[in-house]
Amino acid sequence: MIHVAQNTPPAGYLKANGAEVSRSTYAALFAALVASAGFTPQTFTVNIANPAIFTKPAHGFTGGERLRLSTTGALPSGLNSTTDYFVEKIDANTFYLSSGGGRIVTSGTQSGTHSYLQSWFGLGDGTTTFNLPDLRGEFMRGWDDGRGVDVGRAMGTGQAGSEIAVVDNPNGIIPLTSVANHDGTSSYDTSYSINISAAAGRFMAYKRVRPRNVALLACIKF
């Protein structure tokens, strides 16, 4: 990945804009982003429920992984084979899926054997194309890769910016202030504040403030 001071990519580069591109035309890039990652179809089961619970023993997910589904029969209503779904880990063997609109709800009947295929940035049309990373407007953050600084994230996953809580406080006393983290937990801090409007008595309490970002493997050329 490089940044350039122009609005078109230099020779030998593509825009990292999430576009679908040909697997045959960009075979080496497809191998690097999808095939060489070792992703292979994995079977799973799912119940009919609100929300649906997906089961795959020892799935290895941390949360945020991107999956595309397939089946030898019929998926239950609420699922299809053309949408990219995202993992929310429950435990070592089960997980929820979402597609940007909350946890998936299943209904109706199902048949056959279901499988998922993981990818970092998308499988395009599922057969002839794949998706490039979409880094437009994003900060790039080094993937944790076991270090323990940014735990619970998979390679290529996005992370929302942390929230800054602003409160009315005419007495100048800073209340306990919550800052949301990417894993749904909150941090609390009362030791930092900035008086952003003395007349209105408004204070800003903050901790661990960060921009939205995408986790990518940090490498050094040798």
Task: Give your account of this protein's structure.
The chain has two domains: 20-131; 138-221, no CATH class. It has one helix at 27-33; strands at residues 20-22, 42-46, 54-55, 66-71, 85-89, 94-98, 114-119, 129-131, 139-142, 158-159, 165-168, 177-180, 186-189, 193-197, 202-205, 213-216. Helices cover 3% and strands 30% of the residues. The chain has one helix and 16 strands.
Uncertain parts = 172-199, 202-207
User: Please, how many helices?
Assistant: 1
Order of helices and strands: EHEEEEEEEEEEEEEEE
Spatial order of the strands forming the largest sheet? 2-3-6-5-4-7
Spatial separation of the terminal alpha carbons: 16 Å
In angstroms, what is the radius of gyration? 21 Å
Number of domains: 2
Strand proportion: 25-35%
Structural class of the helices, strands and pairings?
mainly beta
Largest sheet: 6 strands, antiparallel, barrel
Apparent shape: globular
The percent range for helix content is under 10%
Q: What is the arithmetic mean of pLDDT?
A: 82
Number of strands: 16
Write the layout of secondary structure elements.
Layout: E1 20-22, H1 27-33, E2 42-46, E3 54-55, E4 66-71, E5 85-89, E6 94-98, E7 114-119, E8 129-131, E9 139-142, E10 158-159, E11 165-168, E12 177-180, E13 186-189, E14 193-197, E15 202-205, E16 213-216
Parallel strand pairs: 9-16
Antiparallel strand pairs: 1-8, 2-3, 2-7, 3-6, 4-5, 4-7, 5-6, 10-16, 11-15, 12-13, 14-15
